[in-house]
Amino acid sequence: SQQGEEDPQALSIQEGENATMNCSYKTSINNLQWYRQNSGRGLVHLILIRSNEREKHSGRLRVTLDTSKKSSSLLITASRAADTASYFCATDSGTYKYIFGTGTRLKVLA
Amino acid sequence: GAVVSQHPSWVICKSGTSVKIECRSLDFQATTMFWYRQFPKQSLMLMATSNEGSKATYEQGVEKDKFLINHASLTLSTLTVTSAHPEDSSFYICSAHSTSGWSTDTQYFGPGTRLTVL
Predict the structure, then answer these.
(1) Which residue from A99, B62, B75, B112 puts its CA 20 to 30 A from B39's CA?
(2) Residues 6+ positions from A53 with CB-CB distance below 8 Å
(3) So what's the pLDDT on residue B90?
(4) Closest partner CB to B111 (pick from A35, A42, A88)
């Protein structure tokens, strides 16, 4: 069964607004990663956050990790139409075998 | 960054035929590669772990005789969908774990192969 559950399943916002996606998982992890996937295409790696880290930034992206709650969030600030995609979290429990979340479909309206 | 290629990028085949998909790590060695499948508007589901020089490890519910995996070298894993049927139509994605040179914290994903079985 899939380890990660993502919330919301779908999100529609206006350009310039912030988008927040949440990921919850079930077991202890070594690290958690966020990926973007444009429709019908491959995965684009966004950010990796290790279990001993609480927050990471990359450009307009901010990822938080709360291991006590087994949850992570991805914040995209000042969203653009080009950010329209599906976003997935993936957890690694130390075996390098990733378990993907259910995904959030983000639509940014121009 | 590290590059993983897949070939073909898309394939259409008739029901009952077999299809082979290749996954190559272009600039690093990968003792372990992973195969995922993704149905439309769904997430990626891990099918199997491909180990160089040994048998693949399949996830629960994945038929090993239907999805044959061969990891013949440190840069190549193949997935063969045998006797394909329309329900096998899906997007197949591989990933590779680098043992040196590139970050060993992460997997590197291929661009995916879209299989359509008529």
Answers:
(1) B75
(2) A65
(3) 95
(4) A42
Residues with Cβ within 8 Å of residue A64, at least 6 apart in sequence: A54, A55, A72, A73, A75
Report the share of chain A in percent with pLDDT over 90: 78
**Which residue of chain B is at minimal alpha-carbon distance from A44?**
B109
Structure tokens at B45: 């589901």
Over chain B (118 residues), what is each successive 10-residue block's mean pLDDT? 91 97 92 92 92 90 95 92 96 87 75 96
Span A68-77, pLDDT tens digits: 999 999 999 9
The reported pLDDT for the residue numbered B28 is 87
CA distance B65 to B56: 11
Tokens of B84: 């394909």
Q: How far does the CA of residue A86 sit from the closest CA of chain B (Å)?
A: 9
Q: Do A97 and B106 touch (CB under 8 A)?
A: no
In the numeric block, which tokens belong to residue B57? 């490890």
Q: How far apart are CA B106 and CA B70, in angstroms?
A: 22
Secondary structure class of B29 (helix, strand, coil):
coil
B5/B89 Cα distance (integer angstroms)? 20
